[in-house]
Amino acid sequence: MDQGETSPLLLKKEPAKLKGTVGVLSASAVVFGTCIGAGIFISPKGVYEKTGSAGAGLIVWAVSGLLATLCTLAYAELGTMMPQSGGEFVYIHRVYGDFPAFAFSFCNTLLIKPAALSVVAALFGEYLCNMVWGPGTSFILCRVAAASLIVTLGVVNIVGVNVIAKVCEVVSILKLAVIGFLITCGVVVVVKGQGEITNFKQPNLFEGSSTNPADYGLAFYYCLFAFQSWNSLNYMTEELKTPETTLPLGGFIGLVGVTLSYFLCNVAYLMLFNVEQIANTDTIAMDSGYIAFGRPGEIIMSLGLLVSCLGCVGGAICCVSRNIESTAQAGVFPSFISGINKTFHTPVKAIVVVVVTMCMYLLVDATLLIPFLGTVEWLFYCMTFTIILYLRWKEPKWNRPFKVPVFISALLCVITGTFVVLPLFSEESRTTTLLGLCWLPLAGAVYTVRYLVTKFCYRQQNKSETSSLSSSDSGYSEIQGL
Asked: Beta partners for 240?
């Protein structure tokens, strides 16, 4: 069918569309709620293990926040130029075509997002079970709790985007309380004279800092894992009120809040622990509360982690499902998972796909895959930033309701490209990096099979139509001869 033609079916029945109901406050809450999750309790271990010092670790956190904010603003330019939900898929498909867009959606849908979110859900299950039944709860029970969280939040997402946006708003407020409590823990311990205040004094501040650039590449991978949902709003652009304002402003406010929160949390950690202790603990949330207030503090911090995980998973399901919906609408993924439910005005089928995929990743320990996920993730980010530069050159007259300085886009291309290459110089991360890159030829193989199957079906359909037409013509000739 030519692009100018319209299917008769579409003339009869107007498809349901996403509604623009999310304002600046709700948008910033979505960013804040989806970013601040388990990452602030998972990432510090890897960051300080790789950097080796308090000062270097804090610099990595600060630079990561600045980088995530700049990335958000750069994405706002693309989102206001092409205001369709779906994020990178929309932009890559528009400029680079079918296969790069398919490769992104294939990796994003089946690897990057569900695996990362399963880490958050798994942590929720472990902390919940430890609170209720105590340490040593079985793996299966912890995973059942995690799966229950995913399914519940999937149902909430189906009910409507306004519901999940309100959940993110409420959870965001509770997260601020958790961050405030964590900072209070640090202050209380220092006042008692039991803190690690020497972490902030010379020469301890930078003592033991790594001199290996590859270590800092991995440190940024761990750190940016905590900022992973900085691009949330680009997946739901059609649901934003006045996207040209809400997208950049909501993203900026949300990321500034996330960056300040993370930095203060790390200051609190360094008040409570030395760098070696942070690098060696797997339960930093519980340990922080216990050091300051004993068992009650441990419970409060555990509850805070559960709330953070809930908001993170709930908002992310909302955003990722929009990417799947856009992909299916474009015909890259199977069409049966596309479509907006007329009752709830949400992509119900796409939400179900996200929920099922996340539950599948609960069967493995995805915490070991952060560098693996980061390799593929930042490769596509780099590709997306090149689109900004390409369109500035190729389409200078394209309406841009929001623009970032071109040197920022160029800088982001260099930085994200470096993130992809740098881990190759580390023996520890080289294997996982190469495994991550292996997803690209896998996507190519799937795309080729899909293309051949589609081409075969198309030929069979043409043969059937030709045969039917020939039979009809033969019958007509026989009638004429009577």
From this structure: 22
- Give the position of tokens 């010092």: 53
> Is 334 within 8 Å of 328 (Cβ atoms)?
yes
Residues 6+ apart with CB under 8 A from 405: none
Give the gyration radius of the chain's Cα atoms.
25
Domain boundaries, the chain: 22-465
Say yes or no to pLDDT of 15 above 50.
no
Token pair recorded at residue 266:
């790390």
The pTM score is 0.79
What are the structure tokens assigned to 187, written together? 């202050």
Q: Decide: 89 and 271 in contact? Cβ < 8 Å.
A: no
CATH class for the domain made up of 22-465: mainly alpha
Closest CA to 87 of 353, 415, 342, 321: 321
Question: What is the distance between the alpha carbons of residues 390 and 410, in angstroms, rounded to a whole number?
Answer: 11
Q: Is 104 exposed, middle or buried (0-12, 13-18, 19+ CB in 10 A)?
A: buried
More confident residue, 390 or 15: 390
DSSP 204-272: TTTTT----HHHHHHHHHHHHHHTTTTTGGGGSGGGBSTHHHHHHHHHHHHHHHHHHHHHHHHHHHHHH
**Per mean pLDDT, which of 174-178, 289-293, 370-374, 478-482 is the most reliable?**
289-293
- Alpha-carbon gap, residue 166 to 172, rounded angstroms: 10
User: What stretches of 273-423 show up as alpha helix (H) in DSSP?
Assistant: 275-280, 284-329, 348-361, 370-394, 406-421
Q: Report d(CA 456, CA 254) in Å as an integer.
A: 48
Virtual CA dihedral for 58, 312, 242, 77, nearest 10 degrees?
A: 50
Give the amino acid at 412.
L
